[in-house]
Amino acid sequence: MSPTQRTNPSDTRKRLLDATEWLFIEGGYEAMSLRHITARAGANLAAVNYHFGSKEALVQELLSQRLDRLNRERLQLLSACERQRPEGLDARAVLAMLFVPAFRLSHGSASGPAFMRLLGRVYSDPSPFIQDFLQQHYRSISGRFFEAFARALPTLPRGELGLRLHFALKALSGMLAGEDMQQLIASISKGEAINDTELLARLISLVSPILTAPSGNTEQIKVIEQVLQQDQVTAEATRTTPPAADTDSRRQGIPPSTLWIQDGRPAS
């Protein structure tokens, strides 16, 4: 890169945004500082102040550039599907509508994989600054999708639905944000070619039971109580009895961690 290109204001602005995106994906909002950003961008703090004014404004600009179009297209897709299915949408379809536009947009740029990881990081980052930004700027889309989920799952109390959506989106976003996304794809596809439709269908099949599973009932509570009681008994026995050597597994050359499974079933 020539000195002229390095000092071009628009080039400096882009390099600062690119550096911020990379650092945010890798470590989240709290882990990156302006010094980290400027070092990666080959710029100085004065450039940040000139173009953005602060770290907060820089991150807001990045997220707006990346998320505004995505959220417009999400709303357009939701509205179109609701017109086609006025009787109501399936919860899995509504969940897919949050991610189908992202998969499509990720193919329209050379930084497609980075876009998916950015999206995953945005929804899994615990920073109050990031969460406040999402609440303030995208409250309308959150409300529209919440109501769509509420219509798809009419028997769920709204408080329960909100809790489940939180966990479902965290789980799906965590998958997208991970560095091992390619390993996940390979595991799902079993080494065969897989397209976005098949990948997203598989991911949603893993996450959607969080939304659709029945609420805890008396039988489920009883099972958990039994486990808790047994845990207390086991913990007490462990405190009073020294651990015995696992001589049987050592004689047979079986790793102790695998003893609880025999022939694909829990060992008795």
From TrEMBL:
Transmembrane segments: none annotated. Residues 33-52 bind DNA. Keywords: DNA-binding. Residues 10-70 form the HTH tetR-type domain. GO terms for molecular function: DNA-binding transcription factor activity; transcription cis-regulatory region binding. Signal peptide: none annotated. Residues 234-246 have a biased composition (Low complexity). It comes from the Bacteria. Residues 234-268 are annotated as: Disordered. Gene3D superfamilies: Tetracycline Repressor, domain 2. PANTHER family: HTH-TYPE TRANSCRIPTIONAL REGULATOR RUTR, TRANSCRIPTIONAL REGULATORY PROTEIN. This is TetR family transcriptional regulator. It comes from Rhodanobacter spathiphylli B39.
